[in-house]
Design a protein that fits this description.
With about 250 residues, the protein is of the alpha/beta class. It has seven helices and seven strands, in the order βαβαβαβαβαβααβ. It has a seven-stranded parallel β-sheet, with helices on both faces.
């Protein structure tokens, strides 16, 4: 892998993805971020000349194709694909509907699969990496979060299966299981009001062994690490970056 990389980050216009984009860009890497809303994408690309943006929905096959093509057309290669865009909901079993389940799995399972598949020849050419962003709840049960949790469990297992399947091509596949992190997620993808979000935050702070929620930069540091040469002999791993929440 080259020192200066080409990195694709889905959902790079907010929270963890944005923090990772800025980290890579400040190291000299070229970063393509995606997001469904143009405004946050434009705000993020304005923050660093090495960040380019594309309005794209990672659950769409056509947008997956456009995303990989944009990076290859612009820079000629792909070194790292960060499947960061996520969907979720507080969704008790009594409230499920086909559409709500499909919405979660489309972004958390289908999207990473389409992007990884489309990126394969380019990642093979660079001996690159796929980094999937999971959650503590991908391996820790949580009432009311079953479909989000199950979709992240699927992403963690895809990580291990792809690691075996792609090892002969020299492609590494790892995941980061993030713990509760300050971002737009609770009021955005989880659809909570500001008051509900604050109540969840209080409860989480009380449970997390290190007694606080994480900062997006604390997840971004490990995303950068998994894309660095120091991780060249690491594959199929799910690293918990969660203040110890997964231990209890
Ligand atoms: N924050 C946490 O506590 C936490 C904990 C564990 C795991 N995670 C995981 O970390 C990842 C990032 O979450 P975050 O906390 O940084 O959330 P965030 O601040 O809400 O950012 C989510 C980003 O993803 C984009 N996005 C959402 N759906 C998309 C789609 N279908 N296609 C393309 N982009 C999409 C959003 O932009 P648009 O809305 O404009 O599309 C935004 O840029 C997610 O996979 C999440 O499950 C978060």
């Amino acid at each position: 892998m080259q020192n200066e990389k080409v990195v694709i980050i889905t959902g790079g216009s907010s929270g963890i993805g944005r923090a990772a984009a800025l980290r890579f860009a400040s190291r000299g890497d070229k970063v393509l971020i995606t997001g469904r809303r143009a405004g946050p994408v434009e705000q993020t690309i304005a923050e660093h000349k090495n960040i380019m943006g594309l309005v794209a929905d990672s659950s769409s096959a056509e947008d997956a194709r456009r995303t990989i093509a944009e990076a290859v057309d612009r820079w000629g290669r792909v070194d790292a694909l960060v499947n960061n865009a996520g969907a979720g909901a507080i969704l008790p079993l009594s409230d499920v509907s086909p559409n709500r389940i499909v919405d979660i799995f489309s972004v958390n399972v289908l999207g990473p699969s389409l992007l990884a598949s489309t990126a394969l020849p380019h990642l093979k050419a660079t001996q690159g990496v796929i980094i999937n962003i999971s959650s503590t709840y991908g391996h820790r049960p949580a009432a009311g979060l079953s479909h989000y949790a199950a979709s992240k469990a699927a992403l963690e297992h895809l990580t291990r299966c792809w690691a075996l399947e792609l090892a002969p091509l020299g492609i590494k596949v790892n995941a980061i299981a993030a713990g509760p992190t300050e971002s737009g997620a609770l009021t955005g993808m989880m659809g909570l009001s500001a008051e509900q979000a604050e109540a969840v935050k209080q409860e989480e702070r009380g449970k997390i062994p290190l007694a606080r929620r994480g900062d997006p930069d604390e997840i971004a540091d490990w995303i950068v690490q998994f894309a660095s040469p120091a991780s060249r002999w690491v594959t199929g791993q799910v690293l918990a970056v969660d203040g110890g929440l997964g231990l209890i």
